[in-house]
């Protein structure tokens, strides 16, 4: 397995393309948002916290659209597991991608976990799967905001992200954390 690659603000993010539940393919290269594309990586069907988290996003999707934000949620789940997640979690509005390779997850700086068996939701964890991450990507394909996690807990709240978007859009606030080599400044 490859090492984790940290993504840097104001730098291009890796290419990303996944099949969608319901048909078709989602590609970052095809996105033309007014403000940002928000990419939400989730653990998979086995994660009950993911279900609640994504349902909250599903309910707020129109609020993100009003701010010019395109949204995709995706995991390394198979098509069957992603379809089951959409139904079980009552996700009515989100574009739901599946089949994220673990190599691609590493390119995005995501952590990888191994199975602990059956979870409290009654679903078995895959042998290997990626942990959560959330990224805001500018229309030019550069990273504006990113967060990755080693656990399913304490993720960024979508209500807070909406509030932050109001500020950064109104103030044209720059991406922070952009210094690559602080010793050379």
From TrEMBL:
Highest taxon, organism lineage: Bacteria
Domain Thioredoxin: 7-170
Protein name: Alkyl hydroperoxide reductase
């Amino acid at each position: 397995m490859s090492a984790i690659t940290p993504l840097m603000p104001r730098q291009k993010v890796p290419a990303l393309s996944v099949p969608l539940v319901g048909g078709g393919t989602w590609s970052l290269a095809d996105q033309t948002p007014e403000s940002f594309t928000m990419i939400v990586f989730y653990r998979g069907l086995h994660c009950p916290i993911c279900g609640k988290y994504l349902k909250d996003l599903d309910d707020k999707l129109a609020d993100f659209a009003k701010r010019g934000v395109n949204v995709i949620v995706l995991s390394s789940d198979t098509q069957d597991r992603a379809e089951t997640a959409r139904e079980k979690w009552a996700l009515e509005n989100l574009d739901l991608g599946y089949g994220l390779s673990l190599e691609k997850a590493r390119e995005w700086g995501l952590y990888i976990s191994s199975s602990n068996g059956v979870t409290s939701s009654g679903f078995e964890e895959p042998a290997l799967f990626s942990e959560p991450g959330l990224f805001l990507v500018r229309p030019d394909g550069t990273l504006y905001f990113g967060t990755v996690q080693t656990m399913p807990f304490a993720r960024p709240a979508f209500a807070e992200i909406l509030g932050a978007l109001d500020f950064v859009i109104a103030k044209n606030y720059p991406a922070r954390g952009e210094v690559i080599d602080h010793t050379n400044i």
